[in-house]
Amino acid sequence: MSSFNKSIKFDLDIKEKNIVFKDYFYKMVQMKKHKIYEAELIQPACPYCGSLAFLHNGHLITNIRYLTANASLPVIIRLAKQRVKCRDCDHWSMAQSELVNKYCSISNASKLKVLSALTEDRSMTSIARE
Questions:
Q1: Nearest of 11, 81, 66, 79 to residue 34 by alpha carbon
Q2: Which parts of the chain sit beneath pLDDT 70?
Q3: N or C, fewer C-beta in 10 Å, the chain?
């Protein structure tokens, strides 16, 4: 694992070992500057039979909103999830992570932050702005 990958994981506090960060850049999205990280989520083994023999079938790219300490510079992780077919059991699958739920583009860490903010006596508008 490269030191670049380790430093980004440390900055974002991501412990998932199947995510490999490739690059980052800044981009204007809806007239606001965003920091965008490009990463790939690798399928380690078949979830059905545990085999390592795969036929790769591209990636599904998901833009995940991730929380950051600096609210003026939002973070987006452009995650490319591997799609594979197991050669042993002929099942199709897509790589999954604890970072984000299946078919979702909001990170679980962001959801937990919103839930904790809802316990405080604040308006919904201020929580959404944050």
A1: 66
A2: 1, 130
A3: N
